[in-house]
Amino acid sequence: MKAIIGSRALDILQNFPKGKIHSVFSKAFNAEFHGELLGFVNTREYLGPYTICIWDGKPVWRELEATRAICWDGGGFRVNGLEIMDFEHIDIYNFKPHIPVPENIKNVKQNIFLLGGFLKEANGRIAYDNLGIYSRLSCFVRDWGEFCRDKPVPTQFPPSARSLIGLGQGLTPSGDDFLSGFMLAVIYSYIYLESRSRADSTGEKDAPDPADKAVYPVVDISALVDGFLYFIRSNASKTHIISRQMLKAAALGEGPKALTDLLECIFSCGIEKKRLADAALRVFSIGSTSGTYMVWGIYTALSSIFENNCGGEPWKYHEK
Q: Which InterPro entries match (predicted)?
């Protein structure tokens, strides 16, 4: 049996090896170690810093039961003292949000436009009217635009974001899915804009055209992360531990590999439309509607930052 273990998951296991099984599904399960929830999955699309991805082995979680003790022994896991996983090979997934070669802003805007088209096609999967989700999301979208009007480098949410935490049904509520995609997109936007600024200042090959040079907003990424984490801690009681862990990962610029791959496609140089479409499709396939709400969150953040489609003024790029 082989495994890829997320770096954050490994740190937790090494410091707190004893835990308990939290929830079991047909193709995955969650276990809680010292208040942190780790996911066990069998597909790399769900691989993340807080997950253990297992392959080349027979799934064992169908026979597991919640509340049972689980222990990490350095090379596998035991449940109630019985070995259930013994890894002959372990890789470490040490993810850091990054954009290897940033695309120019014109093409990024085109990618955002394409993403909006993909989202429009997928919206038929969302049954939000009966839950009042649409109206609350629309309120947040409007408030976000206003909130950013005079704050080109926001590090916190408008008050209406509180109504989204725990909103909806499913394993991860729709509002939480939306906010996860939104936070990831904002963090990737800052990383992208900072990388474009470096390219501009060093005269790299793909630097912005001289006629469109700009001073890009630069932010201390730790201030952004701290603002997101504070928001999650302040509203932790409104959702459950599975969703809180997803939100916390997004606030750190992390998430399922399918989601971070999509954002890298949007901001990276030389990505073909088909590859972007395939990346979006992999996110749409997450859960019954979770992936669609995540993409909606991504699109809301990016369209407000780069296209001003959320009601506020566009982010201002001042000429040098």
A: AllH-like
Question: For residue range 57-110, what is the model confidence (pLDDT) as tens digits?
Answer: 666 676 788 889 999 999 999 998 888 899 999 999 988 888 888 998 889 999
101-114 tens-digit pLDDT: 899 888 999 999 99
Provide the whole-model pTM. 0.82
> What is the separation of C-alpha 114 from the centre of its chain, rounded to a whole number of angstroms?
19
Q: What pLDDT, on the 0 to 100 scale, is given for residue 128? A: 52
The CA-atom distances, in angstroms, between 310 and each of 124, 143, 315 are 22, 8, 12
Q: 3-state SS of the chain?
A: CEEEEEHHHHHHHHHCCEEEEEEECCCEEEEEECCEEEEEECCHHHCCCCEEEEECCCCCHHHCCCCCEEEECCCEEEECCEEEEECCEEEEECCCCCCCCECCHHHHHHHHHHHHHHHHHHHHHCCCHHHCHHHHHHHHHHHHHHHCCCCCCCCCCCHHHHHCCCCCCCCCCHHHHHHHHHHHHHHHHHHHHHHHHHHHHHCCCCCCCHHHCCECCCCCHHHHHHHHHHHHHHCHHHCCHHHHHHHHHHHCCCCCHHHHHHHHHHHECCCCHHHHHHHHHHHHCCCCCHHHHHHHHHHHHHHHHHCCCCCCCCCCCECC
